[in-house]
């Protein structure tokens, strides 16, 4: 039997009519989640055919209308448009008189805090920035994923409780982010989530080139364990040839990448340098091994052969069987775990 507390209607704020401006991946999912909490979606706007289909799927029977009409019909309006579109949209809605005094105006941009809504604030709206730290698909599964999802919350102090209450009603966990820290907060999420997709996609392409029939099946357990270890133990979870100081192996990697996937070389070198810096700073990469490794990374592996420092892992008690060798941070004294997040999905795209 479920032990999840289902709040009584009397515990909830007054029911609100909900409108969505920008029927991308995020807006319909949040509106559908608010509907489950007892609020009532009444209007949605979308430009592209995909947005309109998404709205019809996620919010059936909710009329598609122009943005200004969404604001006319709704007590709570979700502005779920791309970051670069948001300031102009807010200014335009305020200038045309579409914003109503006392109306809750919520944007879901990770980059911006509440100040981007200042034109609407001057028109009497109540500004909230609620950014779900989740990646969205534009399908009903997104509503389920909101359960336990962290939201970056920024709002005027007097609206903080209201903002946090809305997040909780959607099943999320509010995390207060100051106005000045919003860009840094968003950069952190993009660094982890967006770049992860690129890295995994590149890895799968390379495995296919190497003859692996099911790269997703091969990577799934490995990446799941690596992610769990990283979340649990941070830099102590670093493994692989860079953390071991295997300069020869890294040079061989770069040689192969130049031949088979030259577009991946710059990213490999950049991540290897960052990994080496962190491994050195945390005492995982021995200084005496770092010189050759950093030399390989500095010249892009072009002057190094496939020999060099390979095999060092065995001397140091670390395995050479792959990125999670038998020793080192994955050994008896290190982490032994076997997950990710986020989204910065941009709204109406």
Number of helices: 14
Q: What's the helix-strand series?
A: EHEHHEHEHEHEHEHHHHHHH
Kindly report the average pLDDT value: 86
* Derived structural class: alpha/beta
The level of helicity is 40-55%
> Radius of gyration in whole Å, from Cα?
24 Å
Shape: elongated
| Uncertain parts | 1-12, 304-349
Strand order of the largest sheet: 2-1-3-4-5-6-7
Tally the beta strands: 7
Largest sheet: 7 strands, mixed
Roughly how many Å apart are the termini? Answer: 40 Å
Strand content: 5-15%
Describe the structure.
- Helix 11 runs parallel beside helix 13 (287-299) and helix 12 (265-281) packs antiparallel against helix 13.
- The protein has helices at 27-36, 49-58, 67-73, 86-95, 118-122, 141-145, 160-169, 182-209, 215-233, 241-244, 247-260, 265-281, 287-299, 312-315, and strands at 17-21, 40-45, 76-79, 104-107, 126-132, 150-154, 173-176.
- 40% of the residues are buried.
- It contains 14 helices and seven strands.
- The protein has a seven-stranded mixed sheet.
- By secondary structure, the chain is of the alpha/beta class.
- The chain is elongated, with a radius of gyration of 24 Å.
- Mean pLDDT is 86; it is low at 1-12 and 304-349.
Topology:
Layout: E1 17-21, H1 27-36, E2 40-45, H2 49-58, H3 67-73, E3 76-79, H4 86-95, E4 104-107, H5 118-122, E5 126-132, H6 141-145, E6 150-154, H7 160-169, E7 173-176, H8 182-209, H9 215-233, H10 241-244, H11 247-260, H12 265-281, H13 287-299, H14 312-315
Parallel strand pairs: 1-2, 1-3, 3-4, 4-5, 6-7
Antiparallel strand pairs: 5-6
Helix pairs in contact: 11-13, 12-13
